[in-house]
């Protein structure tokens, strides 16, 4: 009878150990699955942030290129305006020169007419 009780006790202990080991394995599997799910969720967020950063980098490069092109074009426009202003000044200078020549020619013409009249 005592040996029978010992066998039953050992049998129940073995069953409990097996159950405890099974529960331990199930807990490890569940914890591993949870870890994978959490890591996958975090990785999805990180991957989206990475994709967004790449898009921002691309847009920044495009914006920098456009800004450089705009700056170059603005400099060309400024050069054209400066050249136009210089041309206008030269036209004004030519006009003043022409008026000066015209005045000198009238003076010479008047002097010649006066000299011619005196000679007659």
UniProtKB/TrEMBL annotation:
Residues 1-22 are annotated as: Disordered. One of its GO terms (biological process) is endosomal transport. It comes from the Eukaryota. InterPro entries: BLOC1S1. GO terms for cellular component: BLOC-1 complex. Residues 1-13 have a biased composition (Polar residues). Belongs to the BLOC1S1 family. This is Biogenesis of lysosome-related organelles complex 1 subunit 1. It comes from Candidula unifasciata. The lineage of its organism: Eukaryota, Metazoa, Spiralia, Lophotrochozoa, Mollusca.
